[in-house]
Amino acid sequence: MWTSIKNSAKQSYKKVMFNLSAANSPVIGFYFKKIYASKPNTLAHFLDTYSKGLGRQLSFIQIGGNDGFTNDPVHKFIKRDGWKGVILEPLPDIFESKLQRLYAKDQEVHTVNAALGAEKGVANIYRIGFSNKRWATGLTSFNRSVLEKAFTSGLVAKNLKKEGRTDVPDPKEGIVSQEIAVTTVNELTDHYDLKALDLLQVDTEGFDYEVIRMFMAAGSKPRVIVYEHIHLSQDHQERCKDLLGSNGYELTPFGANTVANRKGA
User: Fold this and answer.
1) Residue 155 — φ and ψ, nearest 5°?
2) What is the pLDDT of residues 126-182, one digit of tens each?
3) How far is CA 137 from CA 92, 95, 144, 205, in A?
4) Terminal alpha carbon distance of the chain
């Protein structure tokens, strides 16, 4: 019962903070600018310092935005420092109910309901079919094995338990495929005038290497790339390091993420 009360209070607090941020409330603006302090030696501290120290408006593209708020590494800095850029989220329900609403008042932040691909069109993506909770939608991936691992590792059961549920669906029924829109690097950079990117933020549950490869192939070399390496296979982790190294990037790990700085940028 105590756990249920704590989770309920946490969700209520999160909802209030989300709504304040969506409204660009002076309250949350004051918090981001005057109260928030990032912890040293973390990804948040790197992004905090990078954003403040750039000396101008930061241009960015975020691939895999989800709700744009929960555990999002860039949200507070977009709002605080007035970044300019694009956020992609492939799931229509999450895009419409969360992400689009969160940035509706930010004129220089464009939200796009699509995934990134080599060609414009449609594709199938895998997601948890029995829950729209943030933990579930955050597992959405082009790589079905990422979701299967969430079942076998006990992650799905752990999150369902927090909701007071003891039934864990079989992965064969619990993982579903959904058709989503696909856009390309060139379409984004051309349409939104983002040829010179300060930051590429990637969180695609195992598709990060492919995203980075598409940007390199398109000739787009952001000053900084942040990607989540934890869901990449060992082979793709090494390929990603080699690709970035050959394009002049220096890599620094921060927990589940890696920061790639382009030398001389």
Assistant:
1) -60, -45
2) 999 999 999 999 999 999 999 999 999 999 999 999 888 888 999 999 999 999 999
3) 11, 11, 13, 11
4) 53
Q: Please write the tens of the pLDDT for every residue from 25-74.
A: 999 999 999 999 999 999 999 999 999 999 999 999 999 999 999 999 99
Q: Are 82 and 76 in contact (CB under 8 A)?
A: no
What is the total residue count of the chain? 265
What string of H, E and C letters represents the secondary structure of the chain? CHHHHHHHHHHHHHHHHHHHHHCCCHHHHHHHHHHCCCCCCCHHHHHHHHHHHCCCCCEEEEECCCCCCCCCCCHHHHHHHCCEEEEECCCHHHHHHHHHHHCCCCCCEEEECCEECCCCEEEEEEEECCCCCHHHHCCCECCHHHHHHHHHCCHHHHHHHHCCCCCCCCHHHHEEEEEEEEECHHHHHHHCCCCCCCEEEECCCCCHHHHHHHHHHCCCCCCEEEEECCCCCHHHHHHHHHHHHHCCEEEEEECCEEEEEECCC
The whole model's pTM is what?
Answer: 0.93
The whole-angstrom separation of Cα 18 and Cα 101 is 10
Give the list of residues 6+ apart from residue 45 with CB closer than 8 angstroms, or none. Answer: 38, 39
